[in-house]
């Protein structure tokens, strides 16, 4: 059963908390790791910078680095006006990054391996872009779908494509993160399963042969660490790009 | 359909649970996940925007401000030190010029004094020289007039010795005057 690569994505309910209609809301492993991420991020930033040293300690330096990293990303992608969304993008980035990294620890649960979570985050970004764009520019926001200098004949087609690509954004935005985390963890689990399988089927020779998939796991682990960071970054930078559309809808 | 999965909370789930489907696509867990995600995300957002980010941003800004201030302070101090160096050099140049002036003045004064002293000395010497020359001239005149008397006496004596007769004073004086004139 441990070799089942899907097992790790199971939602385990610890205890029921409330009911919404007929649906029981229970405290789950997913919720546990979400709050773990909240605590880790807050502790990292607040305790790390508690001394407010002029010459930072390592932890403070790391906290400042994460701040500067996201701030630079937002400013370079969405302009200085985009900095009003800096706390939002920072929260997104740190949350996804932290739950991704927690998920790399064996026997933990990866919050972002569930499509509902990534979809909720992506739709939050989508709605933020939509509502801020309309609030800021009114109906001019829809100029986003009408590129300048396009011949009138093919304009309807272009507008259709633009609208379609805008609406499909949350899908690609959420599936990208979800699929990456899911596939990576399945792959790791499958290779780990090989070790167990070979060991139990072929005895000592099988355990020695297990070195091969184990080596594979080591390599994949490095790759997954990169993917965990990269997907958090990609999610954040796409958020910035979409927000930039809301701030500057002119093409 | 996924009834056992939804109600049980144990790790040793029956084999039927796995047949219930792929967990990420099991819609029974969606409501719970959404609720917890909203709570966790909003909580994190509030913690970040109200607490953590202002604190970190404040530190970074404070450091930047401190660096800017220090650079400005260093620039100000550098200007001050440049001014001090300029003032020092000016003072040095002034002092040198002053010393030069004093030296020149002193030299000129001493030269003038020496000149004056030399002149008075010279005048004195000239006066003494003139005095001496006058004395010499007087002595010479006196001596010359004595020479005539001696010559007349000698002439008279020589003539008296030669002819035995003393010539008259007048002829002797004429003869001597005639001889001196030559």
What does this protein look like?
The complex is a heterodimer of chains A (about 250) and B (about 180). Chain A is mainly alpha-helical. Chain A has helices at about 30-45, 60-80, 85-105, 115-135, 155-165, 170-210, 210-245, and strands at about 15-20, 25-30. Chain A contains 7 helices and 2 strands, in the order ββααααααα. The radius of gyration of chain A is 22 Å and the shape is globular. Chain A starts with 12 loop residues before the first strand and ends with a helix. Chain B is an all-alpha fold and about 180 residues long. In chain B, helix 3 (about 30-165) runs antiparallel to helix 4. The N and C termini of chain B lie far apart (about 180 Å). The model of chain B is unreliable at about 1-20 (pLDDT under 50). At the A-B interface, strand 1, strand 2, helix 1, helix 2 and helix 3 of A face helix 3 of B.
Question: Could you give a quick summary of the protein structure above?
Answer:
The complex is a heterodimer of chains A (251) and B (182). Chain A is built from seven helices and two strands, in the order ββααααααα.
| Residue windows where pLDDT falls under 50 for at least 5 positions of chain B | 1-19
SSE order of chain A: EEHHHHHHH
How many helices of chain A? The count is 7
Average pLDDT metric of chain A: 91
What is the strand arrangement across the widest sheet of chain A?
1-2
Relative helix content of chain B: over 70%
Low-confidence stretches of chain A: none
Oligomer: heterodimer
Instruction: Name the helix and strand elements of chain B from N-terminus to C-terminus, one letter apiece.
Output: HHHH
DSSP strand content of chain A: 5-15%
